[in-house]
Fold this protein.
Amino acid sequence: MGAFRLPIWLRIVVVAGLVALAAGASYVAYRWYIRPVTLSIAVGSLDGEAPRVLSAFASRLAATNAPVRLKIVETAGAAESASAFSTGKTDLAVVRGDVGDLSQAQAVVVLAQAVALLVTPPGSSITDMAGLKRVTVGVVGGEVNQKIVSVLTKAYNLDRANVVFKNFAPADIRQALETKEVRAVLLVLPLTEKYLSMVRGLFPQNVKAAPTLIPIENAGAIAEEERAYESFDIPKGTLRGSPPNPDDDVTTLRVSFYLVARKSLDNDLVAGFTQALMSARRDLLREEPILAQVKAPDTDPGAYLPVHAGAAEYYNGTQQGFLDKWSNVIFLAPMALGALATVLATAWRFLRSGDFQTKEAALDSLYALGRRIRNAETESELSEIENQIDEVLRAQRARAATDDENALDAATLNVTAHRLENLIHDRRSALAAPTSKPGS
């Protein structure tokens, strides 16, 4: 039997389908690779400032086509944000270093640093921690400041001194001071003009009378034991410049607000996100002065809150460059292209010739016809064989016309065809000869 041939239109459809399939797969892979990734972030604060700032970041990341987009999940405060993060409800969170379960958190950036302000009204006789004996202290922020209240109580034995800490909403603390329900106030907030103005607004202001900042002299020892805190000196004149209030630096505690990520997040993703975040910070700094406090977290291995490996790559300048990421692809691409070229060449031959028959296969098919000729028993079988010979010869001449390397040369074809014609002639003569009878 002759070689099987697909119609030319079907061959074109097959090759076109394969090309379309490869192109479609490549396009889908490309779109998947460049797609922006959306990460959910839990954020909340008593005054709504933190969600507003993060929303500004999210808008800026979208406007600059950053590789990461943010989905804001607003919470009631830092404690609730830490809870949402630790239970796996969000990918990121804005947390305070001394609040909530941070065992799964890894730092990306320090967003702000909050300072503990222990303040007494103008004219108060309380100037140090010992003066708080049998005093009620109003705590602004409630649950979020329970840790620092506990730390101060332990460090100064305030429970034995009958010091009472009472939680107040920010809007209620001024009235509590005016009615002398409390004689001191504990606030933990960033030293920005917005929050300092809020502190000033709690007390009457005049040249002769000013609120007093009580120093936390044991801040260094507390920070040694409670690593979420660090000792910090409030600069002279922070509350008022002239005359300065305080009139000298005041030692206290400071705690950081972190943007944290899960350890499981891809390093390249977090590195790109960190870079985009720091770029957005520069763009937003004029509109949001609090962003001046944004900085890199501690990248030392023994840091209180370990930095995410992806963020560390950005801060340490060890992000993989193009060649680092794609060196294997660059190395393997020529081999892949060579294989693709072979496939395309095979497809081209398939379109041009109609089958994949090699020289050896063509000769074998002709030799097989020779055996069939010798075994033919009727004229019709010989006629069918002649048709098959003609078909093979036409296919080989067509290949030769297109310079196909698998085409048999003309000399071989002529010799083989001549031999088969002789075999057919001899077999016809044998079939036509009368059969001799026995004994004749």
About this structure: The first strand starts at residue 37 and ends at 43. Strands lie at 37-43, 68-74, 92-96, 105-120, 136-140, 164-168, 184-190, 212-213, 229-234, 250-262.
